[in-house]
Amino acid sequence: MSIPASKKILIVEDERDILQLVKLYLEKEGFRTLSASTGTEGLRQVKQEKPDLVILDLMLPEIDGLEVCKRLRSAPETAMLPIIMLTAKAEESDSIIGLELGADDYVTKPFSPKTLVARIKALFRRLERKPDESPSQYRYGNLVMDLARHEVTVKKVEVPLTAKEFGLLEHLLRNPGRVLTRDVLLNTVWGYDYYGTTRTVDVHIRRLKQKLPSLNEAIVSVKSLGYKLKEE
Predict the structure, then answer these.
(1) Coil, helix or strand at residue 174
(2) DSSP 8-class letter at 4
(3) Which pTM value belongs to this model?
(4) Final residue of a domain: which of 127, 160, 189?
(5) pLDDT band for position 46 (50/70/90)?
(6) Domain boundary residue among 103, 127, 151?
C-alpha cells in the first residue's frame, strides 16, 4: 500500500543536523514536514497544524519529550496520534518510559534515516488498512474492535489506543487460545526490520491491560514464550 504524499509529519528535534537530515529523507518520500526545536513549540504545532505523526526527541529544551508525549496522550484529540521517539543510547531506559506513556515506537541515535522512514510507513500502513482486507469487527465480551473505524469500544464507550496497542489487540483477537511469542508479536505489529527488544511487547501489553481492565485476566502471560488471549 502506498502512503499518500499529503501525510504531514512534525519533527520535534533541537539538534539542527538531525532535524535537517530527517526532513530531507521524509520529503524525498513525498511527506510534508513541519519542525519544532522545543517541547513548547512542538505542542503548539500539534494543536495548530494537526500533523498525522510526530517524531519526538527525548531531550528537548523547555519541556522534555516524555512530558510532551504524556500531554499528547492525555488530550482526547491527540490520544491516538502516532508518536515515534528519538533517544540517545544512554537514554534507552527512558525510551521504555516513553512507551509506557504511549509512544508507538522509538529509534535510538545514531540511526539510519531509511530505518526511520520504514518505521513511519509501517505505522501508516496499519492505520490505513482497507476494511475489506480483514473482518470488519472483532468482539470479546463487552469489547468491540471496529477495524473500518479503527476504534475499540467497551460497553459502547470508545477507548483510545495507540497504533501499536491497537495492532497488538487485533492480533490477539485474531488468534484466541493461541500462544503468540514475543518475537511473533514484534514481527507482526512492529515489522520484520524492527530492532527493539522483546521488552517492548511487555510494556505495550501492560498498557493495553491498564486501558482495558476487562482483559486483565483474559490476556495471559506464558512463561518464557509470550502471551495468549483466553478463548471465551
Answers:
(1) helix
(2) P
(3) 0.65
(4) 127
(5) very high
(6) 127
